[in-house]
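Q: Could you fold this chain for me?
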Amino acid sequence: MRAAFAALGGLIAGFTALCVAELVAAAVRPEAGPVTAVGGAVIDRTPAAVKDFAVRNFGADDKLVLQLGILVLLAVFAMAVGVLALRQRWSGAAAVLVFGVVGAVSAAGRPEGRAADALPSVVGALVAAGVLYLLAGRPAAASAPPPVVDGTDAGTGDGTNGDTDGDTDGGVRGTFDRRGFVIAATAAAAASAGAGLLGRRLQASELAGVSASRGDVVLPAPASPAAAVPDGADLGIRGLSSFVTPNKDFYRVDTALVVPRVDADRWRLRIHGKGVARPVTLGFQDLLRRELVERDITLTCVSNQVGGPYVGTARWIGVRLAALLAEAGVRPPSKGGPADQIVARSVDGMTIGTPVEEVMDGRDALLAVGMNGEPLPFDHGFPVRMVVPGLYGYVSACKWIQDIELTTFDAYDAYWVERDWSREAPVKTQSRIDTPRPFASPRAGTVPIAGVAWAQHRGIARVEVRVDGGEWHTARLAAEAGRDTWRQWVWEWPATTGHHTLEVRATDRTGATQTDKRVGTVPDGATGWHSVVVDVT
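A: Sure. Below is the predicted structure, expressed as structure tokens.
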């Protein structure tokens, strides 16, 4: 019974640590909270294959799974520390401080970390250590020791005064003061919950101000609007992905456990580095006053497995990045420029390395401020992000961008390159069957097999479908909206009853056809044909 209450005391101390840290983080910044800080450190140190597994199996919930895992481990650790404190109160309290050190080092040691980021973990651990020390003392002080005879404990005869419970702090075993423990534990839990709720309320108040800055943004009409999506670009087939992906459905793959909330009025972008003749610092309104362009562009994550969901098309509004670089005096390597890599830095410490040549080769590389007719959502990089058609996101799509440095690939490895991904990663030609779904049971007769294909900056020329390894059939392509967007397709299949395997492959406008060789996402994107198994009834 005593061990169970000791474990409960440890849990309450752990809860106290988190709640107090939440309150202190409100005065520092939300990213400094211990769970977020430790989670970020775990992400930074996770091998590429494990990250890929998490994205593949948990999708956008991968961060939630990580945070829940951290909380479970913390709970186990807290219970163990509570039991330790039953025997040695000071040792238990000291173990809680270890938790604080781990959180503090994780917070301050991140790429974007500051010294103040250590405060939430340190203060939370100190308060939790005090709570645990007090709770651990409750079970051992409820009864008086037996009488002493000739200076010796009559109960033991060994001079230990009957203290056989291992309490090295002078406690006595006695009967368990359950009522006293419950009162103290309830008071500690209630006070901690109050601190945590206050911290959340303060953070919410600050975030409301940042949200208001987004709500105040009015995007100017683009000087170069996107062409209207041509009739027939969206085939309107049930189960087929729409041509434009709504913002709420657009995939999100990043390492941010807490989505950065950046005030547009305070945002600044610095352009500097090798070959920059005129360093530039811009505010958000400076960008809005420049010539804005609007383009339909499909983005793809390198973690997208064959047939995966991490691809989508949006109408982006932004400033041409090449024009900004040219004004700063930057030249691409093909024209004698000394820098071949752009290192974009996010407010959360992420670094993305992008080839200078591709950004300045005439494609619509943007510093985007709008997405599908509205300011960027916070999840997708508000106030400003990079969009470069034809490159996977990990080498082009820096969200919450605040710094652009010109350098070389030999001089600097960006975040993902340090973790065994390729330095350069053009999007590979891919296709996907959206309907029928895997293991569907369509009726015999004409069944539309439909999906999307993409080869950004090259365009899709042909899509073919086959059934059960037979001959390839040319699918009907939707109208092409541009070579930087995906393209819908459909083939009317005269389906017969039975078990069938459907496969698709695409050919881009360079004449290159998808390979059938299945390769995983690491180091530069997956390859292979997407297949779907169905049972026709």
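A (continued): The chain has ten helices and 20 strands.
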